[in-house]
């Protein structure tokens, strides 16, 4: 385990905890952005440059901006925070705890098989060209379907933005 | 131990690029006033130093010595963090821009570029998409409704124009077939044949990118986040001293970087016309060595790239003092119902032209 990995793991865990424990929702969002950056760092260590960049663009650059946008509008603070009943809190703790237990049990005995040795290591594995070949050869149909889905969403957004008949033009 | 690849030369390049960005941004504030004065038939700054050249220095002293003010109820940590973030994200994207071709000394070849990565275009796009956080956080932490409105406007504006900008980039990617900015530059000039810059192949894409660049840098006519006629000062209403200075400064650094990106993507980067002919002429008629002729071409190319960048910066300022500001609904309508469909159309046209072999 390289020092860089340990540092990134430390940042990722610390900021992920910060998301949960921060009192202020805006701080939570900022910690979440930091978590995404740490994860992108992990992708870089795994030689997946494209995934790292896309993770930053899509999650940190677009989705989290929308999160922050909504949270700024809602003006959440301690006074307006709804207090959940004790039953809900206990149920949440039990559900989260069992998920953690299952994950730990499932991953406890995993051995890293197929990890590349120095002889089989391929430095190009996560590069854009390789990824494109896999997407367009092995996963062509799912990839195209997903792109149609995005196109539909985009057309919908443009339609919503169109001026309706008889709308006042200020 | 962690291996730090080839730190020596690259750190020098990064340091020079960093210093240059700051220097150019500093003199952009001067150039903005001179150009404004020229366009409005005024004299402009002429008091500090010869031709007012010390004006940026005087401004910096003024900014540093002003009272540092924290509004009541502000989130102090984030209030300080906002301008820092704006400056950091503004400076980050210049790392991948190829400011020149390679220089060779003996057997060593050096790239005049901070870091050459094969995802350069995505790096620029990612950093640009992060740029809005500085404005958002600063505006929210000010605890002022005008600041908040400015922050919210900045967020929605950036998200909206990022889409069209990304799709304009996709069309460039389709002709270049690579994400590396250096490779995109090199493809725009090939020795011994007529080869055009990307602007010829992507005129529509360039116009879309240009409009989005204005929106992403919050420049007039899209400077709605700091619209002083409606929002006092927008997101930086509560800022004073050098924190305000950092926000204003980050805007100029952004203009410099986005001008560099446009020069690289659409205007040939460090290429200039007849560079290979000049090199061959130097080698055959003047008896130069090939390596030193190539080094001279590289230096001339870097000068050429900066001339292109300065031309774009002038264009940004020219627009600012010519066009009035958009209304907010007009801004959103332009982004969503005009630029995005146009960008999709541009992708379609580009795909068709590639399919029928008109461009490659």
Q: What structural keywords apply?
A:
heterodimer, A: 170 residues, mainly alpha, Four Helix Bundle (Hemerythrin (Met), subunit A), B: 360 residues, two-stranded antiparallel ribbon, 14 helices, 2 strands, transmembrane (chain A), NADH_UbQ/plastoQ_OxRdtase_su6 (chain A), EC 7.1.1.- (chain A), Nuo/plastoQ_OxRdtase_6_NuoJ (chain A), cell membrane (chain A)
Word description of this protein:
- The complex is a heterodimer of chains A (170) and B (360).
- Chain A is mostly helical.
- Among the domains of chain A are: 79 residues, NADH-ubiquinone/plastoquinone oxidoreductase chain 6, subunit NuoJ (Four Helix Bundle (Hemerythrin (Met), subunit A)); 31 residues.
- Chain A is built from six helices and no strands.
- In chain A, helix 1 runs antiparallel to helix 2 and helix 2 runs antiparallel to helix 3.
- Chain A starts with a helix and ends in a 9-residue tail after the last helix.
- The mean pLDDT of chain A is 83.
- Chain B is mainly α.
- Chain B has one domain.
- In chain B, strands 1-2 form a two-stranded antiparallel ribbon.
- In chain B, strand 1 and strand 2 form a beta hairpin.
- In chain B, helix 3 runs parallel beside helix 11, helix 6 packs antiparallel against helix 9 and helix 9 runs antiparallel to helix 11.
- The termini of chain B are far apart.
- Chain B: It holds the Pfam family NADHdh.
- Chain B: It is found in: Cell membrane; Membrane.
- Chain B: Its EC number is 7.1.1.-.
- Chain B: Belongs to the complex I subunit 1 family.
């Amino acid at each position: 385990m390289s020092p860089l990995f340990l540092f990134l793991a430390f940042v990722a865990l610390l900021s992920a905890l910060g998301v949960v424990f921060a009192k202020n929702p805006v701080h939570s969002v900022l910690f979440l952005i930091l978590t995404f950056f740490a994860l992108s760092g992990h992708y870089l260590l795994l030689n997946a440059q494209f995934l790292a960049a896309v993770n930053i663009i899509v999650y940190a650059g677009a989705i989290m901006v929308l999160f922050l946008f909504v949270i700024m509008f809602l003006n959440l603070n301690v006074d307006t925070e709804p207090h959940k009943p004790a039953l809900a809190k206990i149920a949440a703790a039990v559900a989260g705890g069992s998920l953690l237990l299952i994950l730990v049990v499932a991953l406890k005995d995993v051995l890293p098989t197929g990890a590349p040795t120095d002889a089989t290591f391929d430095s190009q594995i996560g590069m854009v060209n390789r990824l494109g070949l896999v997407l367009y050869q092995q996963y062509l149909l799912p990839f195209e379907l997903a792109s149609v889905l995005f196109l539909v969403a985009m057309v919908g957004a443009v339609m919503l933005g169109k001026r309706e008949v008889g709308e006042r033009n200020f | 131990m962690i291996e730090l690849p080839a730190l020596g030369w690259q750190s020098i390049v990064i340091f020079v690029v960093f210093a240059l960005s700051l220097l150019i941004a500093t003199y952009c504030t001067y150039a903005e006033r001179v150009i404004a004065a020229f366009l409005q038939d005024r004299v402009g700054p002429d008091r500090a130093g010869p031709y007012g050249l010390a004006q940026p220095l005087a401004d910096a002293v003024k900014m540093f010595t002003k009272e540092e003010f924290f509004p009541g109820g502000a989130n102090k940590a984030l209030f300080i963090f906002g301008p820092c973030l704006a400056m950091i994200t503004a400076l980050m994207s210049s790392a991948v821009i190829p400011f020149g071709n390679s220089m060779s000394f003996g057997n060593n070849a050096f790239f005049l570029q901070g870091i050459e990565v094969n995802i350069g275009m995505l790096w620029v796009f990612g950093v640009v998409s992060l740029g809005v956080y500085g404005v958002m956080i600063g505006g929210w932490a000010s605890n002022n409704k005008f600041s908040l409105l400015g922050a919210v406007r900045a967020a929605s504006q950036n998200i909206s124009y990022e889409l069209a900008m990304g799709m304009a980039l996709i069309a460039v990617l389709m002709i270049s077939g690579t994400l590396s900015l250096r490779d995109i530059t090199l493809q725009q000039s090939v020795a011994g044949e007529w080869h055009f810059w990307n602007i010829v192949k992507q005129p529509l894409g360039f116009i879309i990118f240009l409009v989005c660049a204005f929106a992403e840098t919050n420049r007039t006519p899209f400077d709605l986040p700091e619209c002083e006629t409606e929002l006092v000062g927008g997101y930086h209403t509560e800022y004073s001293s050098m924190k305000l200075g950092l926000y204003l400064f980050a805007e100029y650094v952004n203009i410099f970087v986005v001008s560099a990106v446009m020069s690289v993507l659409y205007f040939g980067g460090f290429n200039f016309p007849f560079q290979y002919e000049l090199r061959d002429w130097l080698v055959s008629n003047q008896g130069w060595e090939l390596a030193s002729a190539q080094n001279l071409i590289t230096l001339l190319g870097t000068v050429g790239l900066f001339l292109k960048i300065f031309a774009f910066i002038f264009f940004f300022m020219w627009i600012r003092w010519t066009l009035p500001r958009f209304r907010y609904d007009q801004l959103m309508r332009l982004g969503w119902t005009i630029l995005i469909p146009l960008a999709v159309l541009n992708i379609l046209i580009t795909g068709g032209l590639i399919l029928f072999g008109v461009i490659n």
